[in-house]
Amino acid sequence: MYDYLRAPQAIYEKSFATIRQEVDFSGMSDPMRSIATRIIHACGMPEILNELSFDDKVAEAAVAALRGGAPILSDCEMVTHGIIKRFLPKNNSVICTLNQPDVPTRAAEMHTTRSAAAIELWREHLEGSVAVFGNAPTALFHLLEIMEKGAPKPAAILGFPVGFVGAAESKTALAESTLNIPFVTLLGRKGGSAMAAAAVNAIARLAGEGT
Amino acid sequence: MYDYLRAPQAIYEKSFATIRQEVDFSGMSDPMRSIATRIIHACGMPEILNELSFDDKVAEAAVAALRGGAPILSDCEMVTHGIIKRFLPKNNSVICTLNQPDVPTRAAEMHTTRSAAAIELWREHLEGSVAVFGNAPTALFHLLEIMEKGAPKPAAILGFPVGFVGAAESKTALAESTLNIPFVTLLGRKGGSAMAAAAVNAIARLAGEGT
Lengths: 211, 211
Fold this sequence. Notes:
Distance between the termini of chain A: 43 Å
GO molecular function, one term (chains A, B): precorrin-8X methylmutase activity
Low-confidence stretches of chain A: none
Largest interface: A-B, 50 and 50 residues
CATH superfamily of chain A: Cobalamin biosynthesis CobH/CbiC, precorrin-8X methylmutase
Shape of chain A: globular
Number of domains of chain A: 1
Mean pLDDT of chain A: 97
Keywords (chains A, B): Cobalamin biosynthesis, Isomerase
Strand order of the largest sheet of chain A: 1-6-5-4-2-3
Enzyme class (chains A, B): isomerase
Number of strands of chain A: 6
Helix content of chain A: 40-55%
Strand content of chain A: 5-15%
Largest sheet of chain A: 6 strands, mixed
Pfam family, one (chains A, B): CbiC
InterPro entries (chains A, B): Cbl_synth_CobH/CbiC, CobH/CbiC_sf
Radius of gyration of chain A: 17 Å
CATH class of chain A: Alpha Beta
Oligomer: homodimer
Order of helices and strands of chain A: HHEHEHEHHHEHEHEH
């Protein structure tokens, strides 16, 4: 037998105590601290706090959206399967259009990735939604582009594209966007579906509190 | 319009070229280099190579298992949804027992997590399988424990539990185990379902080559 902590509650408590010990959250609002804590918990990297960039209104905006029944739009399937459905305050829809049948044809016609083409199918759901990116820089870029051309706007954007080509650039574009949409993002190459799902789950928990 | 790379093939090529430029893979076999490249690609962190620990036989063992039709056993749903099914050479089963109905009761009886209790339901599938962990340290610990007591052995273990409590310890236990099962793992706190799925996808691609 190995000597390790087995009780789920004790594991959570020790995890969060470790994060509180190692991370200086000063200056962050309580809801934003909850979101940051869950993101750090998902990746095991307290050091990412330095690259976390966010609009002070993002927690409030995303919580209000979920409480109002807004859908969650995700760029990839892994995020949708990381979202803990029982936390969603209004049994909110979780929508990923990436694998819809016409996406490969659209991508070929648009000379872009399937991930970016799939964003076109978000249009009817976009207004007031919570948009989350855990994979594809091109998807986040594409959303920014269509919004600049007048597409409806989500209530909040959670931006965690990952990787070596375009990820850092797409997240900088989000953080520097003048579209005035509340966001949270992790600047640089790091990101991914686990962090993205953790951000959604943190917001869903906040939305469920006090309702 | 933002200026970014849109062509999927060009994005892949530039990503892998960046990884080759930044990472010194010398001393690694070609198959292991493929696996490491895909893991780094999934997290955007070339620096993790230093913590990657593996048995030289793991690529060969896991490839042979998949070619022989072995199932893939995963500790969490996110990994199963990150596995690209069309790459699997024998339409291999991808099994996650975490959400089977009796798991919460088993966990309570065993005084452990649901993730660890779910491993009990792997027993009939274990022999010669590819076991993959993208989340739960307790699940990896539990597999090591039942194997030490005589449970059937997988052909290979891909160990990427993540987090602050038990993750580093469970992966050190895997790397130091005397059970003699080929493995690849990322020592320390980092890990997660994206890296775990990337390892499976790399192995599946290798298994599909030359068949």
